[in-house]
Design goal:
Elements (H helix, E strand, L loop, with lengths): L3 E12 L2 E12 L3 E5 L6 H9 L6 E6 L2 E2 L5 H6 L2 E4 L11 H12 L14 H13 L15 H13 L5 E5 L7 H14 L4 E5 L3 H7 L2 E6 L2 E6 L1 H5 L2 H8 L3
Parallel strand pairs: 3-8, 3-9, 6-7, 7-8
Antiparallel strand pairs: 1-2, 1-4, 4-5, 9-10
Helix pairs in contact: 3-4, 3-5, 4-5
């Protein structure tokens, strides 16, 4: 049986009179990529923000590794094994690739008592940074300022920074946005390689990529789930075709 690492039940978010997310329930299992698709404004990013702890739900619960984390802050969830990336780049452009990864690792392994040692010399953080960079395919650009990377490499760096915190659950918000064909292939290869040790939630608009990589797809419309099934069932679902896929 698949091991469920993240589960939400009845997750709801209201902004005044606007119901942004309406009673969403889903599970993320170890070894699976679970894609969430929908048009702009469907509530996908709001859902990720609630799962990560960035915003509080109006109703519903979130469980991480079997523990209720609904009231936990984002940093606490991150330290418990939840990592995320954002739609926009959230890197430190003037720092090297390795330093970006080291800072991410350091954030999850804080040692305020070690005042006598420079943080940059923390062997644990450096080792995590090197390992994450290697997994993301960035070994050849470790010393390059992050701001000078290509768009695709910047997205890879965000994944590497996420991996440096040793997460078990990955929440990835449009990691393929703005990528060309070659960059998309590299990212899909990385996501496939990461599948074995993680449970991954993927929000993405590239439908070709979604149907190639996802093990399970949840479709949202106006904040609510209209379908949640394996890719072949989603592709042939009349309601999904009418609402999102346009009959293709």
């Amino acid at each position: 049986m698949s091991q469920t690492l993240l589960r939400c039940e009845g997750l709801t978010r209201r902004w005044g009179g606007l119901l942004a997310v309406d009673g969403v329930s889903l599970e993320l299992a170890l070894g699976q990529v679970h894609a969430v698709i929908g048009t702009n404004g469907a509530g996908k990013s709001t859902l990720i923000n609630m799962l990560s702890g960035e915003i509080a739900p109006s109703a519903g619960t979130v469980a991480l590794m079997g523990e209720d984390v609904t009231g936990w802050t984002q940093p606490r969830r991150a330290r418990a094994g939840l990592g995320r990336s954002y739609q926009r780049n959230t890197i430190f452009p003037n720092f090297s690739v390795l330093e970006n990864c080291r800072l991410a690792a350091q954030a999850s392994y804080q040692r305020p008592w070690a005042w006598w040692q420079a943080a940059a010399r923390c062997e644990r953080s450096l080792t995590a940074a090197h390992e994450a960079s290697a997994r993301a395919g960035l070994n050849d650009v470790l010393d390059r300022p992050a701001g000078l990377l290509s768009h695709g490499q910047k997205r890879q760096l965000e994944i590497a920074m996420c991996l440096a915190t040793a997460p078990k659950v990955l929440l990835l918000d449009e990691p393929l946005a703005g990528m060309g064909a070659e960059e998309t292939e590299r990212m899909l290869a990385l996501l496939s390689e990461l599948r074995a040790g993680h449970a991954t939630l993927l929000v993405e608009h590239d439908m070709d990529a979604v149907f190639r990589i996802a093990d399970w797809i949840t479709v949202m419309v106006n904040g609510a789930v209209i379908a949640s099934a394996r890719p072949d069932a989603i592709r042939s679902d009349p309601a999904v075709q009418a609402a999102y896929l346009g009959g293709h």
